[in-house]
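Hi V.,

You were right to ask for the full record rather than a summary. Here it is.
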Amino acid sequence: MAEIVYTAVTDASGFRGTLFQGAKFWLSQKVPQRSRFIEQIKANGGDVTPLEKEADVKIVDHARKQQLPGTYSYQYIEDSVRNSALEDLEKYAVGPAVGTIRAVGSVIQPTKSSRTKFTTEDDQQLINWVRDFEQRGGATSGNEIYKQLEAK
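Predicted structure:
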């Protein structure tokens, strides 16, 4: 059954649909016609939060490159309102999935803010590798010794 959907309704009118009820949206500043989408979300029971981390659904402009993980096109809102039913959100995904590994040199995802500490076993493996490498006559300065350990 189709939901009752309100368009061009102000908060002062008291009318609220239930299409987006219970969902929190964050809209990028670069979404075209952003204020219209905010009105549509609110008129249909959704909430708009200014903080990305508080949102259930993060809306961006799908035409832009380098989208953040877990973001969706504004077309999701357009199509849901037009069809008076929630569309499949995953059909509108534009960014990489949440939790994907950041590619080396990526400007899309920020780098880690702290490094993972070595365990005692990691330290012992490194000590043994360097000691054995040095005993075989290898140079312990530079990155090559560590590249070989990584390849092992």
